[in-house]
Each structure stands twice: as C-alpha cells, then as structure tokens.
Amino acid sequence: MQKLRRTMLFVPGNNPGMLRDAHIYGADSIMIDLEDSVSIKEKDAARLLVYHALRTFDYGETEVIVRVNGLNTPFGREDYEAIVRARPQAIRMPKTETPQDVVEADQLITEIEKAVGMEQGTIKIFAAVESAKGVLNAQHIAAASSRLIGIALGAEDFVTDLKTTRSLDGIELLTARSLILFAARAAGIDAVDTVFSNVNDEEGFRNEVKLIKQLGFDGKSIINPRQIGIVHEIFTPSQEEIAKSVRIIEASAEAEEKGSGVISLDGRMIDKPIVERARRVLALAAAAKVKLK
Ligand SMILES: CC(=O)SCCNC(=O)CCNC(=O)[C@H](O)C(C)(C)COP(=O)(O)OP(=O)(O)OC[C@H]1O[C@@H](n2cnc3c(N)ncnc32)[C@H](O)[C@@H]1OP(=O)(O)O
Ligand SMILES: O=C([O-])CC(=O)C(=O)O
Ligand SMILES: [Mg+2]
User: Fold this and answer.
1) At the fourth CATH level, which superfamily is domain 7-235?
2) Is the pTM of this model over 0.90?
3) CB of 158 sitting under 6 A from ligand 1
4) Whose CA is nearest to atom 6 of ligand 2?
5) Atom 1, ligand 2: which residue's CA is nearest?
6) Which of 11, 74, 98, 211 has the greatest number of beta carbons closer than 10 A?
C-alpha cells in the first residue's frame, strides 16, 4: 500500500497537551520536535517528556517521527539514546549537511537497537537539508543509508544560510526544492517540502502547496492543524482525476488485448507513462480511502 506523507505536523516536544492530542487532527505524520522549538533550558525535560509520551499514548495509525538535535550539539547523543528506545517510526535529522552525518546517525541507531534487542533497521531516518552545503550534497545524503525514508527542505534555516529571506512566490527556494526532489526520486525515497510559517495567510499557503505539488513533492511539513485540510485537499486526487485515471487504465487494457501499444482517448494519445501516472493517482486515492462516486 502506498504510504501517504502529505502532511507532517510539527509538535513542540515541550508541550504536554499538544503531545497528547497531536494525532487527532488527521495529519499523515506527526513530527515531535526536540530541536528548534525547544529552548536550550528545556532540552532535557522535553526529551524525558517525549520519551514518556511515546511510551504512553496510542497514536493509532498516525506515523510518529521525532526531530532530534544534531549529533554536533550537546543534546544529540542523549536524544538518540532516549528516542530510539521510545520506538517512533523514524527520527528526523535536522540540518543534515553530508552523507557522513547520515552514516553517523545510522551507526548510532544500530548500536542502540542492538543494545536493547530491537530488530536492526526498525527505526527509519528522515533527513532535513537546511543549508547550501546540504542542498549541494542532497544526492549523496539521500543515498547514504537504507534507513532513509525521505528527505526534506528546512527553508527557514536555508534562507538564513543563503543570506536572504522567504518570499511569497518562493523564487529563492526553487533550486533547492528541485535538487532535493531529484535526489529523493533518484534514491527512491520521499520528498517533503518545508513549513509555511504564517498560519493566518491561507491564500499564500494554498499557493505554496499547489506549487510544491506541481514540482513533484510527496507532501509538506506543517506547523498548525489548520494547515492540514488545505494540503490534503490539494494532494488528494479529485473525483475527476480518479474517473479519468480509471478510463485511461480501462482503455489501455483494451488496447493491450487488441495488441496495440498507443491508443487515443478523447483525442489525446495514451501511452505507457500516462498509464503509469493514472495508476499512481489510483494508488494515492486508495491510500487516502477516496472512492469513485
Ligand atoms: C522553523 C522550524 O523549526 S518550524 C518547526 C518548529 N515549530 C513548531 O513546532 C511550531 C508548532 N506550532 C505551534 O506551536 C502553534 O501552532 C503556533 C505557535 C504556530 C500557533 O499557535 P496557536 O495560535 O495557539 O494555534 P491555534 O490557535 O491554531 O491552535 C488551535 C489548537 O490546535 C493546537 N495546536 C496548534 N498547533 C499545534 C501543533 N503544531 N501540534 C499540535 N497541536 C497544535 C492548539 O494547542 C489548540 O488546541 P486547543 O484548541 O485544544 O487549545
Ligand atoms: O524543516 C522545516 O520545514 C522547518 C525548519 O526547521 C526550517 O525551516 O528551518
Ligand atoms: Mg530548521
């Protein structure tokens, strides 16, 4: 079954109420944060809180990911030690810059899995790229470990590194988004776009989601439950798309029976890549439990 990662909701790891309720809003993944939404003074308390939340709450079918602090910070190692033991589906590495960063995290996770008798490879990795260096290395980062399930852009840190700011049309992010997407596709893993920080700008958010869907991303990191519905609406196949995809697949099956490769449907050529895209639409619709009415 196709795994949906349309929405990955950041949840500050120092907020017990948000930690308890994070899955009820319907995001595909919740991404509990120990990094930049937690102040230095609260790092130890938040780590303990998140460990216990993961051991206590039942998040149902929602994918649970924890963003830890980097291994080049004073908090990284203890984060991995605690969080691997709490068994989320994946760990999100922030500010990944080199394939060695991923290898180092992979080796540490392997050590901890061994120490606690967990099957090797249980804990997956999601790597966020948030600097020019990281973007230039994205191809190698995405291929650095069999634990990797996706890579993401972290645009707030990225534009700071570039010495610019974020604009509404996102021109400053276009190259980074494209390189991250190519790296993910070449490695066969997911590509997830960055957060949109103004939760009250619905129109700006909607335009950005349409843009990143058109670029080819699988979904978006988000910071507020109000952003979930918009992303799901844009990323979930519509009734028209589903109906058209069904017709394409039926027409191609008919053509195959007759022994012809290329066919025409409503005046448009239907060939192999178009059939493959139609299959993907149906797989996404099935994963989102959308039925043709
Ligand atoms: C650059 C980066 O690193 S981004 C990643 C780190 N940042 C974060 O994790 C921030 C996450 N988001 C938030 O903390 C908040 O959404 C804010 C501060 C942006 C906005 O807060 P508010 O204005 O209070 O949000 P809002 O009024 O929409 O909240 C509505 C409800 O959703 C809950 N909620 C809001 N955001 C979240 C969230 N990210 N996760 C879970 N629950 C949330 C609130 O607790 C509130 O619940 P309640 O009705 O039971 O009280
Ligand atoms: O990964 C994200 O989208 C959030 C983040 O840390 C950033 O933008 O710097
Ligand atoms: Mg960041």
Assistant:
1) Phosphoenolpyruvate-binding domains (3.20.20.60)
2) yes
3) no
4) 154
5) 154
6) 11
